[in-house]
Amino acid sequence: MAQSMCRSCGAKLEHTFVDLGMSPLANSYVKPEQLNRMEPFYPLHVYVCGKCLLVQLEQFSSPSDIFSDYAYCSSFSDSWLAHAKAYVDMITPRYSLHKHSRIVEIASNDGYLLQNFVARGIPVLGIEPAANVAEVAKGKGINTKVLFFGEKTALGLVGDGWSADLIIGNNVLAHVPDLNDFVKGLKLLLKPTGLVTMEFPHLLQLMEQNQFDTIYHEHFSYFSLLAVEQVFARHGMKVFDVEELPTHGGSLRIYAAHVEDVSKQVGRRAKELKSREQRAGYDRLDHYRSFSPKVEAAKRALLSFLISAKQEGKHVVGYGAPAKGNTLLNYCGVRTDLLDYTVDRSPHKQGQFLPGVHIPIYTPERIRQTKPDYVLILPWNLRDEVMQQMSYVREWGGQFVVPIPEVKAYSCYWRGFFLEPCA
Ligand SMILES: [Zn+2]
User: How far is the CA of 228 from the centre of ligand 1 (A)?
Assistant: First the structure.
């Protein structure tokens, strides 16, 4: 196989960050009639670039295979909707956005965020590669185009009068196969004093919280501030501010502008985080070698829990069918022998099976009917929300189990406080 090159700086990829083995595409849920067919598995092998230290997957598949019928609809998570609204409430006054501003969101999904600008009468354009999801947005009256973003798309948008005052990208930068083409597009689309904000999971949290299940094929790059800054600098842009957010287990929101834009100076928060990353070792290759042993230990811990539960005759089911659950269950080899079923609020996923491990996905109501002893929360980033929604599990003495950063069971959840973890 051809040697992969770094998708940021082009250096040869030679250093393994973690190797999670062969895994199916995390969003390729299996329909009942597909159960007896072959399923494609691809290596889930993550490298760290020896030169720019970008953590990344090697190239393995074309993006159109991945995104053409994407099942994820942002609006199914209450906390994510609240997060999007809070962002619009913050950014609109901070940059004086108004009815003549132009807001472009890349990977705008079902319009979960842009709908908040529409409500304020600010013109928006959503760019969404998945046609089925874009249709949902259009149905809600949100101006949306079905496109992949890059240099070519940006030139077309500028020609159509869509040079942007604000370009938003939430959980898209990490999913971009051609990183340099994407950032070049941002540079072209942005007005001279415009602003880009991008959110993505922070590599520092991934490593410190052992969030290896957030690694999946659709997620090509895993950024530190140090690594992302180099990509923007290569295209004449600077990261002048940064916020650390609790979303997706710990994300960064970066604020970028043209290097020439003197109205935006690099601020205290960006400087502080950069030096924190340097102190923690993110500017040295050695630091990245400490990750693999932690991942292997987490696998052994989850399997030990599931095996002992099974031996004690306990009934264990899952909650949620997120991409991260598919990485976790495939890497750990957990099938219906250890986890009877999972449930999900999204009707798009109900009635289907998790890729690879073929665990069935039901409606959450199933949990009330079967009264399991343990509910393994796969979207651990929504842990509090799930425990509140499902608090009736304690009526029959059921417990919640969270797999990451370490396997932990909770006997119940009451008024925002966890009572005694019990395993
Ligand atoms: Zn590199």
Answer: 11
- Please say whether the dihedral angle defined by the alpha carbons of residues 377, 383, 387 and 389, taken in this order, is positive or negative: negative
Give the pLDDT confidence of 195-251 residue by residue, as tens digits: 999 999 999 999 999 999 999 988 899 999 999 999 999 999 999 999 999 887 799
Using the CB atoms, write b or e for 192-205: b if 16+ within 10 Å: eebbbbbbbbbbbb
CA of 172 to the centre of ligand 1 (A): 19
Task: Give which of 3, 9, 42 is closest to 24, Cα–Cα.
Answer: 42
Task: Scan for tokens 């007896």, then name that residue.
Answer: 36
Distance 199 CA to ligand 1 centre (A): 21
Tokens of 33: 């009639």
For residues 43 and 60, the answer to whether their CB atoms sit within 8 Å is yes
How far apart are the CA of 227 and the centre of ligand 1, in A?
8
List of E strands, 2-136: 15-24, 41-48, 55-57, 103-106, 124-127
210 torsion bin: left (phi>0), alpha (psi -120 to 50), beta (else): left
CA 207 to ligand 1 centroid distance, Å:
19
pTM for the model: 0.88
